[in-house]
Amino acid sequence: MIKLLVADNHPITRKGLEVLFSASSDIKVVGSVDDGEAILEFIKKNPVDIILMETDFPKLNGLTVLRYLKNDYPDIKAIIFSAQPEEVYAINAIKAGASGYISKSVNVITINEAILKVNDGGIYLSNDLTQQLAFGNRVNKTNGTFYKKLSTRESEVLKLLTIGKKNKEISKELDINEKTVSTYKARLMRKLKVTNLVDLVNQAKLNEGL
Predict the structure, then answer these.
(1) Which of 21, 36, 37, 38 has the most crowded CB, counting CB atoms within 10 A?
(2) Keyword DNA-binding on this protein (predicted)?
(3) 126-175 pLDDT, tens digit each
(4) CA distance 138 to 199
């Protein structure tokens, strides 16, 4: 039986996933939490095989959690379950340590298949993205190409900036100093061809298609 931890900041999503797997003979939901810090607290005390998790948490964003898991809990696998565009965030999530990326628009069967595949040691991405990567195509010539140019750390900083985090808060969450945050911000501004934070955030959201 696969021990699954559900992590999402929306109560309805968490409850829906609990109900979904309540009758499963392969997967058991052993916990449900609402932010990144709670994920780390839960796995310190409870055995977990796979975490099905969002990326946008009020405390400790998903990419940072993935880095912790990769370093401290390498046996626990994580699947990102997000409404954010796969072509924008999936590759960086995999680089950060995720074993799969599922859009929240998928059906129940797909979620189940993804968990079973990851549990067997595989990586789960949608067929569309897998084919694009296999054939070396540029993933989403507007949004995806831009985001592929960013490092995982740059993506983390950008994500936190777009949700209104200050330099001090970002430095604490990513465990880097404020000067380093400023350096990343300057790089992002050059790559997005803007000169101030407001335009940086707006341009990032535009690239996400929000």
Answers:
(1) 36
(2) yes
(3) 877 776 555 555 444 444 455 556 777 888 888 888 777 888 988 888 88
(4) 26
- From residue 136, how far is each of 39, 91, 133, 143 by CA, in Å? 35, 13, 5, 16
Cα–Cα distances in angstroms (integers) from residue 91 to residues 86, 147, 155, in the given order: 8, 9, 11
Across the beta sheet with 100-103, the strand order is: 27-33, 2-7, 50-53, 77-82, 100-103
Rounded CA-CA distance 108/16 in Å is 11
Question: Which two structure tokens, joined as six digits, stand for 86?
Answer: 């796969």
In this structure, which CATH number among 3.20.110.10, 3.40.190.290, 3.40.50.300, 1.10.10.10 belongs to the domain 150-208?
Answer: 1.10.10.10
Is the pTM here over 0.85, yes or no? no
